[in-house]
Amino acid sequence: MTDEFTHAAYAELLGALADAGYETLTVREYLRAGSLPERFVVLRHDVDRKPRRAEALARLEAEFDASASYYLHPSAFREGRAERLVDLGHEVGYHYDDVATTRGDLDTARALFANNLRVFRRACDVATVSPHAAALSQHDNTVLWQRGPSFEEFGLLGDADRSVDYVDLSFFSDAGRTFRERPADRARSLGERDQPTTAETASDLAAQFRAGSPARVCVLTHPCRWTNSLPARVVSRSRDRAATLVYRGATLFGGPEA
Fold first, then answer.
1. Do residues 67 and 44 make contact, with C-beta atoms less than 8 angstroms apart?
2. What share of the chain is helix, strand, coil (3-state, %, to 5)?
3. Which of 22, 27, 58, 32 minimizes the C-alpha distance to 43?
4. Helix (H, G, I), strand (E, B) or coil at 15
């Protein structure tokens, strides 16, 4: 594990993308695009907790003229926060947790999803959503879409996991406090591609981007991990280690795969 989850490290990553001529896209822009740029990165953030850290990354991205998708868990959502993210040029989406919250009651989960989406839409336009990987729950939130409803019924373009073509895009995530491995939840996507390029740290990833490879990328971060405070990084690292142990145990004993 690396401790290189600082604002300086993230700024280095953004600078590398800008220097190499990558165009940044939100998930909404990616799904709406008739044709995609030759070189681009889809920036996506899943905001489970510590939403102020998400706002800090959003301001940093705005300095680099980069746009990203911020998926807010209901516990992290505030109308004013969503409006500030949009004002900075970003997309705000719903980080849904409804199947886990209702313990697998799909009818109630769909009703809760619809209600939460209405709440989000009081503050901003919501076109895409992202599932929360509830490590302590046996329920997979993406089961919401099995046997209906469709994204269109909710006026949505799609889901950041299920609607993005991960065969076409290289995928990097800070899951596990490293960018070297693809997390298991990509198995729920449209597919997977062989990814010969991996990165241990944000600096390693920045070096690859400066070299212009790979050309079509999605980068997922969890802003709660990124902070300039050393004590906060120590706490975050300890929490991530504990969560990794819980996840491995849940998977071993038949729990969720993401």
1. no
2. 45, 15, 40
3. 27
4. helix
What does each C-alpha distance from 189 to 5, 133, 184, 254 come to in angstroms? 26, 14, 10, 20
Element (H, E) at 71: strand 69-72
Length of the chain: 258
Residue at token pair 């038949």: 254
CB-based contacts of 161, cutoff 8 Å, min separation 6: 130, 131, 142, 185, 186, 188, 189
Q: What confidence tens digit (pLDDT) does each residue in 197-230 have?
A: 678 889 999 999 999 889 999 999 999 999 885 4
Distances (CA, A) of 242 to 137, 232, 238, 247: 15, 15, 6, 9
Q: What are 215's two structure tokens?
A: 């050309």
pLDDT tens digit sequence for 83-136: 999 999 999 999 999 999 999 999 999 999 999 999 999 999 999 999 998 666
